[in-house]
Amino acid sequence: MKVHFIVHESFEAPGAYxxxxxxxxxxxxxxxxYAGHPLPADASHFDLLVVLGxxxxxxxxxAQCPHFDAASECRLIRxxxxxxxxxxxxxxxxxxxxxxxxxxxxxxxxxxxxxxxxSLTPEGKANEKVSHFGEVxxxxxxxNDMPGLTADAKVLATSEGCPRQIVExxxxxxxxxxxxxxTREVVELLIAASEAELATLTDRRFVQTxxxxxxxxxxxxxxxxxxxxxxxxxxxxx
Length: 238
What we know:
The chain is an alpha/beta fold. It has helices at 16-23, 70-82, 92-100, 122-125, 184-199, 210-215, 219-237; strands spanning 2-7, 27-32, 48-51, 86-90, 106-120, 136-146, 154-158, 166-170, 173-176. The protein is 32% helix and 26% strand. A hairpin with a 7-residue loop joins strand 7 and strand 8 (166-170). The radius of gyration is 16 Å and the shape is globular.
């Protein structure tokens, strides 16, 4: 299987997603757009497209951030979906999936940074790809927005601070507003990139301090993410 990552910033690393690729023996490709890497010319170059997060949002223009072209990424996402490829979006990536399908992103009711619980909805509990998460699962967060919903989208998980944590757009296309790919190394990169911002958010109820962020254990959610990915690729293989 060929897995292609769109990486928007050096500190928004693939983390457990890349670990899954290596342990399963899949082939990884990268468009590190912050370093000037191009996007794939079309969807024939991969089986699974993973669009990662970033400080941008889908409304960010090329003039505001020259290395981020939301329109081009949405075009590639649409091509991948039309071609029957598997697509997973994380945070910004989940919002771009919604935008590619005509559903505008929105601001989340709360900014969430840290490790907080998500709860499966009835649709989530009935979904074989995420039902193993359990009714409640502690996962990583680092966001202020959330993906838009198409007419056919199913919200599989919510949190107290955000009503759209995991969205199924089709059985092969999923948006994760939460960050189940976090590892200690990835979180350290994010802290280093956001230290000044974190110092201004000490009054937010869903924002952890750098020390609290460093103390979190991400292993359980990583393992559950691996199972999700295995099940997704089973569906892709048909």
